[in-house]
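Data deposition worksheet. Section B asks for the primary sequence of the deposited chain exactly as it was used as input, without tags or linkers unless they were present during the calculation. Section C holds the resulting structure in token form. Section D is free text for depositor observations; keep each observation to a single sentence. Incomplete worksheets are returned to the depositor.
Section A, Depositor: J.P.
Section B:
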Amino acid sequence: MSQWLQHLVAGAKYGSVSDATIQGYLRSASQIETVWQQLDEKVDDLLLGGMAPWEAHASMGYALAYVRACRLDVIFAQELLKASAVNKETGAGKIARLTYNQALALCEHIEPYLEESLKASANPQVARRLPLDFGPHITDQQGVSSVHVQGCMLAAEAAKSWTEGVLAKYELAMNAAKLLIPQVVTDHIKKMHAGIELGNFHLRTGVDLIGQLSQGQTTEALAIKAEGMLWEAMEGFYQTIQLVAMPGAFGIAARKQTAIPAREEVNLPREREHEQESHGRRPLPPSLPTPPRRTPEQNALDLLGDITAVSQNQEERQKPSPGDVLEGIVSKTEAPPKKTEHSVEETMDLLSDIMGKQEEKHE
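Section C:
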């Protein structure tokens, strides 16, 4: 198929636009190197002043994070345009619509990130939100071309190289100091190496999928999968290169990546509490109050009342019924039943004995 026909087919499927706007943004990125060099000089001045290397780098940590993130945005846009130019997908001076939108979204970060870097270098004590997110990630319902995926691969490989170089320079500065390196700095370097390894895993997976693209043994779904893996690799390198000079910052990055909290507390208005109870767990019934502890005198009085009640019941049972009285009068042979009586003195003696036993048991 001729190049003219290839350009026609690609333009009809993915659309094509001029790359002049992106080229203009990339020209404005020439200041990145100047800003980065100024920050390195400030770090060197702090080192000459006797500051520990981890403290000197951390003092410029926010400024370095912004300029390094800006650098990776520019790298990604440059590699997208380079892949499009090499493969001549849509003709000279034109790129696919998806490539244009993605490069433009990243290039719009150049000016604000450089500005924040300069502000942070002038006021290093002011805390800022880190790490910055890579993106936005632009997708297209029409799918993704193999040229766009190859551009993403080149960008991820370049980002990996830059991140490894920045980390190596940081380690060299730490080891050059004739001071004991704090454990938090050592742990921080290990975590950054782990972040690069994870990004490299995503990169290698995406490269393997791209190998199938070049062999023509792929589907649209496979191309989208490859582009997604390469994007994850860029996210890993993008986060790591920002946090190189900031030991302890990985804890903030880990909390930020938590998309769905394991448990979320919701305070409902008072008028809606009954709605929550009707659909969820109802509150437990109130517990019964614990009765007060009884004294030995109260137990003795209760026992005396029980004895009196038993005596009265016995008297009631021993009273003759009307039939028995009539029979006794007729027969004149049966005497009236004997009545059990308790004197006041016997009752008081019994009460004293009970109270004495209760006091001994209480003691």
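Section D:
Residues 252 and 258 are 10 Å apart (CA to CA).
Confidence is low (pLDDT under 50) at residues 1-14, 251-285.
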